[in-house]
Write a structure and sequence with these properties.
Helix content is about 50%, strand content about 15%. With about 375 residues, the chain is of the alpha+beta class. It folds into three domains: about 110 residues, Butyryl-Coa Dehydrogenase, subunit A, domain 1 (Orthogonal Bundle); about 110 residues, Beta Barrel (Butyryl-CoA Dehydrogenase, subunit A, domain 2); about 140 residues, Butyryl-CoA Dehydrogenase, subunit A, domain 3. The strands form three sheets. The chain has a four-stranded mixed beta sheet. α1 runs parallel beside α4 and α8 packs antiparallel against α9. It is globular and about 80 Å long.
C-alpha cells in the first residue's frame, strides 16, 4: 500500500525548516551573495536549530534520521538559498564515506565533533582533469610503513576553505581498469603539507565557498584509511547514490522559489490594463512549473526512501538529480521571463535563482553523465521496468 503523506514528525521538521528559511535566510542572504561571503551567522543558527548533520547515527551524537528527513529539510532551505543549502548539506557528503566504510574509532573521532559544534567536513574527489571521470584521478597516496604519503591536488571542493577535515580519494595503484586503484583517506586540514586556496569567484552559489586543495608529502596514518586499500571507487559510488537525490531536492527548492516569485509578480504586474495573471500563456507557465515540481519531488522522495530501506538504486538517484536540476533551471528561466526586464536586474530575487540553478546540472555528475548511467543501467538489465 502506498502512502504519500508525511508523518507528523516529518511535517514538524518541514515546518521548522520552512520557518527558519523565512525568518533567517530569505531576509538576509542577498547581502552575502553580493559580497560572495559564506553566511556564518545563518549557518550557526541552522546548526543550533538542529537542521544539520541529521543523519549522523545516535551513537555518535546525531539524530539518526533518514535521507528523506534530510531532503525535507534541505528542500525548504533551498527555497531561500541553494548556496547555503549546498554548504550545509556538503557535511553529509563529507561524512557519508565515514558512515559507509569507517570503523567505530573513525566514526567516534570524526562524526561526533560535527554534532557538538558547527564545523565542516569536505568531500575531496574532483580534480582539474577528473570531475565526472573519477577513474582519472591523479592525486597519489604511497604507502610507507604505517602511513601513506599523499601528493597531488583537488579542485572544485565545496567548503574546503571553512572545513577542518577532508575525505580524500587518491590513487594507490595505476590499474584504473580494475576499479581498485583508488583509496579513501580522512585528512585533517592542519596537517603539514595541506594547503587550501582562497574561494573561487563563481557565476552562482556565491554563498558557498569552493576551493582547491594542494597536498605536498602529507603523512596520513594508516588508521585514517577508510576500508581496505582499493575500496575508494566503490565508496565514492555508494556515496553518490545517497547524495544525488539531495541535488533533486535542491532543484525542487529553487523551482518552488521561482514559482512563488512568479505568482506574486503575475498577480500585481499590469499589462494592457490587466494583471498578467489573466493571460493564459502565463497560466500555462505556472501550471508547468507546478507539474514539474510535484513530479520531481515524488521521484526524489522515492530515491531517498530506497536508500533509507537499505536498497539504494543508482538509476533512481540519477533520475532524481537529473529531473531536479532540469526543473530548477527551467523554472528560474521562466521566472525571469515573467518578471521581464525587472527579472534581469540584480536588485530582484529571480536573477539569483537563475545563477544558482545552473550548477545543479554540473556538480556531482553532469546531466549527461546521469543520462549515461541511467541508460546504460537499463540496457544492461539493471533497471526493472
Amino acid at each position: 500500500m502506498l502512502d504519500f503523506n508525511l508523518s507528523e514528525e516529518q511535517l514538524r521538521l518541514k515546518e521548522k525548516a520552512r520557518k527558519f528559511t523565512l525568518e533567517e535566510v530569505i531576509l538576509e542572504i542577498s547581502k552575502y551573495d553580493e559580497k560572495e561571503e559564506f553566511p556564518w551567522e545563518i549557518a550557526v543558527k541552522a546548526f543550533n536549530n538542529g537542521l544539520m548533520n541529521v543523519r549522523i547515527p545516535k551513537e555518535y551524537g546525531g539524530k539518526g534520521l533518514g535521507l528523506l528527513e534530510e531532503i525535507i529539510i534541505i528542500e525548504e532551505i533551498c527555497t531561500g538559498c541553494v548556496g547555503l543549502g549546498t554548504s550545509l548539506n556538503v557535511n553529509s557528503l563529507g561524512f557519508e564515506p565515514i558512515i559507509i566504510a569507517g570503523n567505530k574509532e573513525q566514526k567516534e573521532k570524526y562524526l561526533r565533533p560535527l554534532t557538538e559544534k558547527l564545523s565542516f567536513i569536505s568531500f575531496g574527489l574532483s580534480e582539474t582533469v577528473a570531475g565526472s571521470d573519477i577513474a582519472g584521478i591523479q592525486c597519489k597516496a604511497e604507502k610507507k610503513g604505517d602511513k601513506y604519503i599523499i601528493n597531488g591536488s583537488k579542485f572544485w571542493i565545496t567548503n574546503a576553505w571553512i572545513a577542518d577535515t577532508f575525505v580524500v580519494f587518491a590513487r594507490t595503484n595505476n590499474d584504473r581498469n580494475t576499479k581498485k586503484h583508488l583509496t579513501a583517506f580522512i585528512v585533517e586540514k592542519n596537517w603539514d603539507g595541506v594547503k587550501v586556496s582562497p574561494p573561487m569567484k563563481k557565476l552562482g552559489l556565491r554563498t558557498s565557498p569552493t576551493s582547491a586543495i594542494q597536498f605536498k608529502n602529507v603523512e596520513v596514518p594508516i588508521e585514517n584509511r577508510l576500508g581496505k586499500e582499493g575500496d575508494g571507487f566503490q565508496i565514492a559510488m555508494d556515496t553518490f547514490a545517497a547524495s544525488r537525490p539531495v541535488i533533486g531536492a535542491f532543484g525542487v527548492g529553487i523551482a518552488r522559489a521561482a514559482l512563488k516569485y512568479s505568482i506574486e509578480y503575475a498577480n500585481k504586474r499590469k499589462a494592457f490594463t490587466l494583471n498578467i495573471s489573466n493571460f493564459q500563456l502565463i497560466q500555462r507557465i505556472i501550471a508547468r512549473m507546478i507539474t514539474k515540481i510535484e513530479s520531481a519531488r515524488l521521484l526524489t522522495y522515492k530515491a531517498a526512501l530506497a536508500i533509507d530501506k537499505g536498497k539504494p538504486d543508482i538509476v533512481l538517484s540519477g533520475c532524481a538529480k537529473l529531473i531536479g536540476s532540469e526543473i530548477a533551471m527551467d523554472a528560474a528561466k521562466n521566472a525571469i521571463q515573467i518578471w521581464g526586464g525587472r527579472g534581469y536586474l540584480r536588485s530582484n530575487p529571480v536573477e539569483k535563482l537563475f545563477r544558482d540553478a545552473k550548477v545543479l546540472e554540473i556538480y556531482e555528475g553532469t546531466t549527461q553523465i546521469q543520462e549515461i548511467i541511467i541508460g546504460s543501467s537499463a540496457l544492461n538489465g539493471l533497471y526493472s521496468y
